Every structure is written in C-alpha cells, then in structure tokens.
Amino acid sequence: MKIADVSGFYSETGGGVASYVRQKLDLAAQWGHEVVVIAPGPCSRVEPRPGGRIVWVESPAMPFDPNYHVFVSGQDVWEVLDREAPDVVEGSSPWRGGWLAGHWPGRAVKSLVFHQDFIAGYPYTLLGGFLSRPAIDTLFAPYWGYVRKLSACFDVTVTGGDWLAERLKSFDVHNPVSVPFGIETGLFSSDKKDAALRRELLAACGAPPDGKLLLAVGRLHPEKRHRTIIEGFARARAARPDLGLVIIGDGPLRASVETWAARAGRVHVVGPIADRDCLARCMASGDILVHGSGAETYGLVVAEAISSGLAVVSPDTGGAADLARRGLSRIYATGDAESCGGAILALLTAIEAPGRRPPANPPGSAESHFAALFKLYQRLIDARDAASDVDRVPLAKSAASA
Predict the structure, then answer these.
(1) Non-local CB neighbours of 71 within 8 Å, separated by 6+ positions
(2) Which CATH number goes with the domain that contains 52?
(3) What is the pTM of this model?
C-alpha cells in the first residue's frame, strides 16, 4: 500500500516524531509498502529515502522554534496528495497538518494519528497548580469540540496507547483505536553498558566514580517538565551526595534548563545525541531514568530505558506511568518536585536492597506496532473497496472492529 503522512511536526532535528517516521520508512522498505512523508520545511524539495520519500513543502518557520516549520498553503499539500494518489492518508496531529489531511477530497482511507494529547501536554502543565484537570478540560471544551469535528473527517483515530484511546473516547472523538507503540529491536539493551562512559558521565556531573548515575532524556520543552526533574533531583541529592544527573536533549528551554542545572549542582546538560548507538550506550550505563512528562502517548524513552536495564522514576499520568510499572520503578505525583525527590530516594533504596531484581516485562517493538497499524489500514482499504458507497462513519466502525 502507499501511505501519505501529512506530518506538520516532522523535523530532521526532532525527537519522537522523527524517530517514528524513520522507523515507519525502514519497515515499509522491508515489507514492500511505500511511505510519502509530506512535511513543512524551509524550501520545497523531494528527499528519497528507503521505503519512500520526504516531500518538503516550503513553509515559514515556527516563531519560537526555528527547527520546525508550519504549513500555510493547503493547496501545496493537496497538490502533493493529488499527485501521489495514496491508499491511506495520515494526519499526524489535530492542527494544520491534520486539518489538511482530513479535508483533502481524495478517496483514500484517512487516519488521524494522535501523537500527543495537547491538553495534557500544555494546559495541564501550565495551569495544573491552579485548576484541577477536569476544570481544565471544561475550560478547553472548544478544543475538544474542534477535535470531535475534525475526527469525523477520518475513518479512524489512532493512538499509541490504551490510556489515550480511552481518554479520547470519553470526549466522543470518532473511532479511537489503540495501536501500542514500540521500540527499535536490538538497539537498546543492558549489554551495551560502558564502564568508561559511565565514569565520564559521572565526572561531567562532578559526582564520584562510584556514585549513582541518573539520566533524563527528552526534548527541552515545557511539557517534559525538566524543572520538576532537576528540583526533585536536588532534593534527593541533599540526602544522597553521591548522585549525578545527566540531561540529554535540546529544545527551546535549553537556557532555562542550564540555569536550573547550575543552581541545583551535580547536573550536566549534554545536549542532543544524534548517534542512536551512543544514546543506547549512555542509557545502559546509567542507574535510573527520571522522567518528567505526564502527557506521553506511549513513553518511548521509558520503554528504551526499561530495555536498557534502567530503573525508572515516572510521573503518575500518561503512557509513561503504565510502561514504568513493567519494571523496577517508583511513581510520583506529576509536576511535584518533592514527590519526585522522594521517589528517587525510594527507588535507590530498592535498587541497593539485597536480592535479585525481578525481570521487567519488556515493551513492544516498533515492528509489532507497524505490523498492527498496516494491518488495520489494509482492513479499512478492503472494507472501502467492498462497500465504496457506504457512509464513511459506519464503514470505519465495522472495519476497525473486524
């Protein structure tokens, strides 16, 4: 099949979305599918990739992050879709890209892929100290009304985890189907532990060579709650001076994160690590992943950490919490630095307790996710072809439940 992904948040320097697109292209190449990623960029060009291509559409940069661009001209995107004539069109966000995918008048099966819960990622983060989550959802009722209306343009709304599918269902979003995400097979493993790299990372933090190495991995962005991580770490370090924290990632909050890190002490901001094997070695060489975002669709970094043999400190909301409970972990109240610090200390006690650590329940693979996703799309294509005159809404419901 040919899949066109209208990906408004794809960037070569991006994090989770870029990794997801790369995996989709790689597996499409292996399984005989074709993926065309339509993304906003600084100029219009076509970039061939194994498994398909990236069609960049000239678009202005986002004002607060020039690594990303935003679609303006819908006609340019629709012309690409007309030319490609895909079997499936994905809208990879509920914003401009999703709107363009949903309103393209072509015959393809349409899938709204929900990579992120905007309300959990932003209003919950910014307003959570003043309002309850139900109150915030009520305040943003117009947003949920918009998502409901947009989702009706699609055959299916795909989420990367059960919790988000249930959440969307509670707001009457059309036909949410969970297709759990997964990680790259074989890349992240405890076998990649590197003693020299571990000593180097501890030294960069100013921690002793026999100290405990904590990691935080992710884009430096408000929804990732790095301030909670750093302040929680500082509270834990007051009781455990042997701790060091390494922060891996980049983003618009880089300057703020570096300021918070300097204030806390024993925190080293590495920046982005583009080499995936190097990232895997860093993760396998640590002791604990401290995660901040309570709005993850799936929690890819947490899954990678578990596969790397790390214990996990996770907030109590979103997909990350569900994943963390698969292995040795402690859960804290989302956004609460004191709770985070307590969870770090409790997890250190558990790690250092005598006895054998029970094995973690391994997360799923990228292969299993995309195999299930492509199978879902094929069912929808077959149902459309068998009953092309049937209204789109009951068609999608019957196909997704098949």
Answers:
(1) 8, 40, 57, 59, 77, 96, 97, 100
(2) 3.40.50.2000
(3) 0.80
